[in-house]
């Protein structure tokens, strides 16, 4: 792995959609470094949580255009990863916060 675990996995994403995905299809969502590859993410999750990762899918999220007072600005782009664990595996993503 080219980076430290905590430089790859930045934070778990806990929304209604991600909680439903974790309950129904054993998927967990993390905010990850923009330079992290799928192999880096898989290795980091397996090492940190000691689980078997089945699949990793990534999404580059574009930052929104926002007005800050009278000035127009843009929020930063970021990357998130959907991680599916092998059958029978689970993790407590809330403890990673």
Describe this entry's structure for a reader.
The chain is an alpha+beta fold. It has three helices and six strands, in the order αβαβαββββ. The chain has helices at 5-8, 16-25, 38-49; strands at 9-12, 27-32, 53-61, 65-68, 71-74, 78-85. The chain has a four-stranded antiparallel beta sheet with strand order 1-2-6-3. It has a two-stranded antiparallel ribbon with strand order 4-5. A hairpin with a 2-residue loop joins strand 4 (65-68) and strand 5 (71-74). The protein is globular, with a radius of gyration of 15 Å. The two termini are 22 Å apart. The mean pLDDT is 90.
Structural class: alpha+beta
Strand content: 35-45%
- How many strand elements? 6
Give the terminus-to-terminus CA distance.
22 Å
- Unreliable stretches (pLDDT < 50, length at least 5) are none
Mean pLDDT: 90
Gyration radius from CA atoms, angstroms: 15 Å
Strand order of the largest sheet: 1-2-6-3
Shape, principal axes of CA atoms:
globular
- Supply the number of helical segments: 3
Largest sheet: 4 strands, antiparallel
State the order of secondary-structure elements, H for helix, E for strand: HEHEHEEEE
Helicity, as a percent range: 25-40%
């Amino acid at each position: 792995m080219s980076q430290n675990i905590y430089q790859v996995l930045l934070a778990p994403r806990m929304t209604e959609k991600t909680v439903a995905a974790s309950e129904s299809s054993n998927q967990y969502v993390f905010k990850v470094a923009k330079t992290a590859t799928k192999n880096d993410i898989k290795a980091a999750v397996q090492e940190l949580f000691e689980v078997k990762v089945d699949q990793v899918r990534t999404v580059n999220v574009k930052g929104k255009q926002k007005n800050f007072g009278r000035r127009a600005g843009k929020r930063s782009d970021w990357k998130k990863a959907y991680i599916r664990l092998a059958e029978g595996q689970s993790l407590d993503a809330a403890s990673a916060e």
